[in-house]
Amino acid sequence: MDPSALLRAPEDHWDIFCPVVDNYGDVGVCWRLARQLVTEHGIAVRLWIDDLSSARRLIPSLDPSLDGQTVRGVDIRAWTSTFPDAPVGAVVIAAFAASLPESFLEAMAQRSPRPAWINLEYLSAEDWVAGCHRLPSPHPRLPLVQHFFFPGLDARTGGLLREADYAARRRAFSREAFRQALELPPEQPGERMVSLFTYENPALPELLELWSKSPLPVCCLVPEGRVLPGLAAHLGLSGLRAGDKILHEALTVCVLPFVEQTGYDELLWACDLNFVRGEDSFVRAQWAELPFVWHIYAQEEDAHLVKLQAFITRYLDGVEPAVELALRDFWLAWNRGEGVAAAWPSFAACLPLLKLHGPAWSACLQETGDLAANLVRFCKVEIE
Ligand code: TRH
């Protein structure tokens, strides 16, 4: 595709509106998309973020006091309640059903040609998604039409974010070098390396106890975050911070600093099992092609468990029923916060088979095409 078709003039940049609801996923997805549009499609991107302090966790060089700054080629703007007078781009992406500033909507309606207006939705494996992907939704008052764009697991959806250099970075990765860089203790025979990026979970003590009594050593790498207080309490400590290494019988716990997204990929590649959460880390775990456990963001009336079950059905389609049962039991126990000790042995026994399944699942996902490229292709059609 000739990106110049989308870059007729400076005002043909793309605007991405990123509302920070909670945690890091919203920024994680929008920052990843913005960087890909800039580096892989040569598109000028203006990324509006309504909470720069949270975003700084993922973009360390970001200065939350500035209204505007360019980081890694992305023009990052503070999305403030009194919205500045800013030129409207050729494409406007409202991430996660963001409500755009009224003044900006008015300006979109005045723009000629009208911008393509995209509502970039949350990821779900549920069947209804394919039927909603690309659907138009006219604005009730203004001559504007918004299109829904759904990430997803098959070609009837927008696919998933995956950078063009992902495979090359993975090939260049060395687990040994990673361990040395973190000054991890030498790898023990049969040691299982686990990464733990999760929300607070009442089942955590049960799982840690299980691992500390494990016949095989377990090295648990824990990025700084919401799980630390629960972890510290279980280990009888007043607190934990990056750099701490705690030996607890067969379990070694290493607390890691929060790193940039590329560094987080390396953590996933270094481990035998990854506990992930939300949306973006969940997708990265699938690209890592290693066994993982998904702690999905909780929703009312257990709606999140329906999403979890829908994903498991897709992910393990065609895999032995016993493996599916073992994984489903353990993931549900982890997400319900109880019963992990009972479900762990069968799940642990399936890890070698799940490791074999990883590359096949990743290959299947790659057939959908990468979300950024799919979005550019969709907008090209919508603009012209
Ligand atoms: O932070 P999250 O729990 O975000 C969630 C989800 O987005 C969810 O969909 C949304 O409803 C909720 O917020 C409000 O999990 P997620 O999506 O995995 O995002 C975490 C981001 O943090 C991801 O981009 C990876 C990144 N990360 C780093 O960059 N460095 C790190 O060291 C770690 C641990 C994570």
Explain what you see.
It is a single chain. This protein has 384 residues and is of the alpha/beta class. The protein has helices at 25-41, 52-55, 102-110, 128-132, 166-171, 175-181, 204-212, 228-234, 261-270, 280-287, 303-315, 321-336, 340-366, 371-383; strands at residues 14-18, 45-49, 68-71, 74-78, 91-95, 116-120, 136-138, 145-149, 192-196, 218-223, 245-248, 251-256, 273-277, 292-295. The chain folds into two domains: 14-160 and 368-382, no CATH class; 165-367, Rossmann fold, CATH 3.40.50. Strands 3-4-2-1-5-6-8-7 form an eight-stranded mixed β-sheet, covered by helices on one side. Strands 11-12-10-9-13-14 form a six-stranded mixed β-sheet, with helices on both faces. A hairpin with a 2-residue loop joins β11 (245-248) and β12. α1 (25-41) packs across α14 (371-383), α11 packs antiparallel against α12 and α12 packs across α13. Bound molecules: 2'-deoxy-thymidine-beta-L-rhamnose. 2'-deoxy-thymidine-beta-L-rhamnose (TRH) binds at residues 21-26, 28, 58, 122, 197, 223, 258-261, 264, 277-282, 297. 2'-deoxy-thymidine-beta-L-rhamnose is lined by residues 21-26, 28, 58, 122, 197, 223, 258-261, 264, 277-282, 297.
